[in-house]
């Protein structure tokens, strides 16, 4: 047997210390109506329109709890970047894929996870070229180059930056559904298109609160109802736990280097089933949310225990006293009845 794998090291930061609640004014400053308000929300941190990861949290109708949270990407990742098509298809001549991702919000990350849904190639600007000439759809079909699908994987690499890994699948999502029943599993492999690092935030030491609160970044808050000065509103612990759950869920994708190895791996998964899928931890891991702090045992607890024990003791004493008091009376009564019985029989 091989040695057990060690857990990845945790991301460390002094900003995890000194946890505190957010005031009602700070919660209002972090509030947005929907994800559509995120670009305006990020103006406070001087966002320049580049790739950026944010984490909106939706509150319950009474604003006391966090109902859900997610990662939302914004900004441009790259423009007119060239990729070698021979890694993803088998065209007879060298062919290039020219791709732009002007707005990362096209990737949707459901269920509070850091793995996106599949994105069709029709949702992003792209073209194919050969010898500097753009290929038509008929030419692409003749060369065996098909529409494709993308999927994004995220994992934090520090308390300030996150990495995106984009996988390419050389077919429609419907084709994946028909061929591979497990294709939606986050562990399902793919062909690596690219990877980039960019900021996550906004950082807690920037606007709108500009102070430590026990977490390196701040969430955007979507209230369930208008926030009231009288509350209720979520505790800092609940907000930090929701953010930690999202960032701690990161995993690396299983990457195949070319179309042949991808097809062979998919056939293996079809033959062996879900147990053949592999979980790949990231190189560093965001710390899990800490459990509730142990409450100190005060004098009230000791008083409660003392009163319980004392009441049991008094009950037991009263029981013994009742036995000693009743026993002589019962003995005399029985003795009188026995005497009467003997006198009656003698007469």
What report would you give on this structure?
This protein has 347 residues and is of the alpha+beta class. The chain folds into two domains: 263 residues, no CATH class; 47 residues. Helices cover 29% and strands 20% of the residues. A five-stranded mixed beta sheet has the order 7-10-11-12-14. It has a four-stranded antiparallel beta sheet with strand order 5-6-8-9, with no helix packed on it. Strand 8 and strand 9 form a beta hairpin. The chain is extended, with a radius of gyration of 34 Å. The N and C termini lie far apart (98 Å).
Number of contiguous helices: 7
Helix/strand class: alpha+beta
**Number of E-type strands:** 14
- Rounded to an integer, what's the Rg over CA atoms? 34 Å
Oligomerization status of the protein chains: single chain
How are the SSEs placed, and which strands pair?
Layout: H1 24-30, H2 38-41, E1 52-54, E2 56-59, E3 66-69, E4 72-74, E5 78-84, E6 96-101, E7 119-120, E8 126-130, E9 133-134, H3 137-142, E10 149-156, E11 161-169, H4 173-179, E12 190-199, E13 220-222, H5 236-248, E14 255-256, H6 259-272, H7 299-346
Parallel strand pairs: 2-13, 12-14
Antiparallel strand pairs: 1-4, 2-3, 5-6, 6-8, 7-10, 8-9, 10-11, 11-12
Notable characteristics:
alpha+beta; 7 helices; five-stranded mixed β-sheet; four-stranded antiparallel β-sheet; 347 residues
């Amino acid at each position: 047997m091989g040695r057990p794998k060690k857990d990845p090291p945790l991301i460390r930061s002094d900003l995890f210390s000194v946890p505190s609640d957010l005031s009602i004014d700070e919660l209002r400053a972090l509030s947005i109506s929907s994800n559509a308000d995120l670009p305006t929300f990020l103006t406070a941190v001087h966002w320049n329109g580049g790739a950026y990861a944010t984490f909106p949290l939706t509150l319950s109708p009474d604003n006391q709890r966090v109902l859900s949270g997610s990662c939302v990407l914004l900004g441009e990742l790259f423009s007119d970047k060239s990729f070698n098509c021979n890694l993803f298809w088998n065209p007879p001549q060298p062919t290039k894929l020219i791709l732009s991702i002007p707005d990362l919000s096209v990737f949707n990350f459901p269920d509070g996870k850091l793995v996106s849904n599949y994105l069709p190639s029709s949702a992003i600007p792209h073209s194919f070229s050969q010898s500097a000439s753009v290929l038509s759809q008929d030419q692409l079909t003749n060369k065996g180059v098909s529409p494709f699908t993308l999927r994004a994987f995220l994992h934090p690499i520090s308390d300030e930056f996150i990495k995106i890994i984009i996988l390419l699948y050389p077919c429609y999502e419907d084709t994946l559904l028909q061929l591979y029943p497990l294709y939606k599993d986050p562990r399902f492999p793919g062909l690596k298109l690219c990877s980039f690092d960019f900021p996550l935030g906004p950082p807690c030491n920037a606007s709108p609160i500009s102070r430590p609160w026990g977490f390196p970044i701040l969430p955007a808050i979507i209230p369930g109802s208008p926030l009231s000065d009288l509350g209720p509103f979520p505790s800092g612990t609940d907000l930090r736990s929701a953010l930690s759950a999202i960032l701690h869920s990161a995993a690396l994708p299983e990457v195949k280097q070319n179309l042949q190895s991808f097809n062979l791996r998919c056939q293996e998964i079809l033959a062996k089933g879900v147990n053949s899928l592999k979980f790949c931890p990231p190189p560093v891991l965001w710390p899990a949310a800490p459990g509730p702090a142990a409450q100190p045992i005060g004098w009230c607890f000791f008083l409660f225990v003392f009163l319980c024990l004392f009441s049991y003791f008094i009950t037991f004493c009263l029981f013994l006293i009742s036995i000693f008091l009743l026993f002589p009376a019962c003995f005399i009564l029985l003795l009188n009845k026995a005497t009467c019985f003997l006198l009656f029989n003698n007469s």
